[in-house]
Amino acid sequence: MRTSQELKDDLINRMKNAMKNRPIEEPVDRRGEIIPGKRYRDERGRMVTVKRASQLRVEYCREGYAGVSETGRREFEIKFTEVMA
Predict the structure, then answer these.
(1) What is the mean pLDDT of residues 2-9?
(2) 40 vs 6, 47, 70, 72, CA distance in Å?
(3) Which among 19, 39, 46, 73 has the fewest CB atoms less than 10 Å away?
(4) What pLDDT does 67 receive?
(5) Cβ of 73: how many Cβ atoms within 10 Å?
(6) Separation between Cα atoms, residue 43 and residue 15, nearest integer Å
(7) First-to-last C-alpha distance (Å) of the chain
């Protein structure tokens, strides 16, 4: 039977090997992410500001209008283009 010290050393060696063989992580591209506060243009060129975004829905406010509009995320990604500052 192995001692607790041997078990500990074996576990440490396993962890070191796992860290060596870990695939290289690539940086995450967040340009396409819909974040509250970002500004977009619709197909007619009108400006909108994102108020809330979830996996399924996006709430936005059109410039010059008091109300808030809501649409599906997929439809939003098709109809709106992000405005670069």
Answers:
(1) 90
(2) 60, 6, 14, 15
(3) 19
(4) 94
(5) 14
(6) 53
(7) 66
For the chain, give the longest Cα–Cα distance: 76
Taking only the tens place, the pLDDT of each residue in 11-65 is: 999 988 888 877 777 777 666 789 999 999 999 999 999 999 999 999 999 999 9
47 closest CA partner among 34, 59, 69, 62: 62
Integer Cα distance of 34 and 45 in angstroms: 18
**In the structure encoding, which two tokens stand for residue 64, read together?**
């010059």
Q: How far apart are CA 37 and CA 49, in angstroms?
A: 6
| 61 φ, ψ (degrees, to nearest 5) | -120, 125
φ, ψ of residue 76 to 5 degrees: the values are -60, -45
Residues 71 and 58: their CA atoms lie apart, in Å, by: 6
Q: Which domains does the chain have, with CATH numbers?
A: 36-85 (2.30.30)
